[in-house]
Known about the structure:
Elements lengths: L7 H7 L10 H4 L4 H7 E4 L5 E3 L2 H11 L9 E3 L4 E4 L5 E6 L23 E11 L8 H13 L6 E7 L3 E2 L6 H8 L11 H13 L3 E10 L10 H12 L4 E7 L4 H7 L7 E3 L5 H21 L6 H6 L29
Amino acid sequence: MHQLHLSEPQQNSLLALRPVAHGDLATLAALDEAALSARLRIVTEDGTVRELRPNYAAELSKMLQKRPYDQSWISVGEAASYFNTRSGSRLPLVFAPHDAAGTAGHSSRIGVPSEEAVVEGESIHVVVDQSSSMQSMNAAAYAGARELVEAMPDEAAVTFSTFASEVHIGEQGTKRGVLDILDRPAVARGQTALRDAMVRVIDLELTRRRTVTTVVVVTDGQDTISATSEQAVRDAVERFQGLAGCRILFMGSNQDAVVSAQRIGIGAHRALTFGGQDANHMRVAFRAASQNAACYRSFGSDGFTSLQRSASVRPSTPPVEAGALDGPTPPVLRRMRSVA
Length: 340
């Protein structure tokens, strides 16, 4: 860090904070302006740690998204980043003090939020493959996602994202707003950046955890273009699923989805293989995910059932009706009264 450009109060404040370094930029690029404002701070000349003003967050977002921005305003170095003021002083950009990554000695990746950062409620992030091989099932994928979102509680936070050669992260909103998006399927084209999509989604969800945070990943094949390594995905998955209420459901076709999921740290119970190039199987898989979410919400039980697994791959003629795969209702567990 160029300490000569910082005031003594700034230097003292930075002893307890971690500056934003060049290695953090790829992860921060997954965040919108609101999330950037929540995770980052600036240190003023008197050493005060302040929240980002909206214009600061907007300019930073432009830089991270590789859009035109005022290059005289922001400086990024290997070890630290700054906002440059008109008077010639520098305001270091740091992780917020409450952020686990915002203390000295931690990894350059965004860390796990503190328990105080968890918001009461439920969120779901549906991440769908939209590569060219999905053309025959694209409409069914959107219809299945719609059914899944419709079954969520009205107060749930919902996000719908897609990936092909590039990753497109949707805005988090109400289920009604996401349902409007799902009425207009986009065109399936390009390659499969599955690993890139998973890491970006996980990093984003770590910034806005709820008591139940579920990510549903749907793909019809293996990754073909990601810059992210398999180990990086596994690290992100383990970091995410190590937190209470955070889970990833992995549904795939043209592969053994259980094996694919286990390779990146997702348990077999949260993986489901569905029949390739069969639109009905796609709908069945999404219905199974919806039932899984409801079961976890109501009873805390996790994992796909054997009936759901068989229905997602067996030859089908008529569409499977909703409710046909529910299986027996899990028993309500009652706490035993201790004997004195």
